């Protein structure tokens, strides 16, 4: 087997002497033509191939034109169907417009009726809230409807504090309050306090029917002790007193207590 370098030399030699061989020995040309014919088509074969391709192209073009014509006819039929459906849609639209006018009238009547009922319900709730708040403020906690004191306080404070989220389970009445370390009172001093406990907040409240400035001061001390004992909670102090005198109002303002009356 010849090496690569030898093959290169042989190729160069063949290329050099090939023209002379063709002139001197025509049979060499015949052999070379046969070799080329095996690798590439002859001119007449190539011409026949082109002719076949041309006929195939023309046939395909004619068939494609027929298909396009058929699709065009189908499109025309669909267009006619669409026109008919459009006419039907227009008729339904006219009917819908008539029903729409009736529906709007009925809807307006229903909306007015709903507003009327909602207004009546809101009015009744406000009246109930006002009554409950008045009962809390004057200390009238009679259990006429089977409600607990916590229920009545919750309903009253929902109105009085404008906090609709207050529930009976949030009310803590007469909770024992002990100053074990003497932070505000003497060490070991005990008293009671009323609370509304919600999440991380405490509303400390006290209700007095005939409040005096000294009662406000004592309440302020209880609030101070609760604040010391609950540093992680937000404390709100509310003193409830109907028709509170000016001295009571001034004392509440001085001690930072919210007065409701």
Describe what you observe in this structure.
This protein is α/β, with parallel strands linked by helices and 261 residues long. Among the domains are: 4-40, no CATH class; 164-260, Trna Endonuclease, Chain: A, domain 1. The protein has 6 helices and 5 strands. It has helices at residues 4-24, 26-39, 43-138, 149-160, 213-229, 246-255; strands at residues 171-179, 189-198, 201-207, 234-240, 258-260. A 5-stranded mixed sheet has the order 1-2-3-4-5, sandwiched between helices. Helix 1 (4-24) crosses helix 2 (26-39) and helix 5 runs parallel beside helix 6. The longest helix has 96 residues, at 43-138. The model has no long low-confidence stretch (mean pLDDT 80).
- Which CATH class of the domain at 164-260 is shown? Alpha Beta
Amino-to-carboxy terminus distance: 120 Å
Task: Report the average pLDDT across residues.
Answer: 80
Q: What is the strand content?
A: 5-15%
Low-confidence stretches: none
Helix segment tally: 6
**Major β-sheet, in short?**
5 strands, mixed
* Structural class by helix and strand composition: alpha/beta
Sheet with the most strands: spatial strand order: 1-2-3-4-5
> What is the 3D form?
elongated
Q: Any guess at the CATH architecture of the domain at 164-260?
A: 3-Layer(aba) Sandwich
**Helix fraction by DSSP (H/I, runs of at least 4):** 55-70%
Radius of gyration: 52 Å
* Number of separate strands: 5
CATH topology of the domain at 164-260: Trna Endonuclease, Chain: A, domain 1
The helix-strand sequence is HHHHEEEHEHE
Show the helix and strand layout.
Blueprint: H1 4-24, H2 26-39, H3 43-138, H4 149-160, E1 171-179, E2 189-198, E3 201-207, H5 213-229, E4 234-240, H6 246-255, E5 258-260
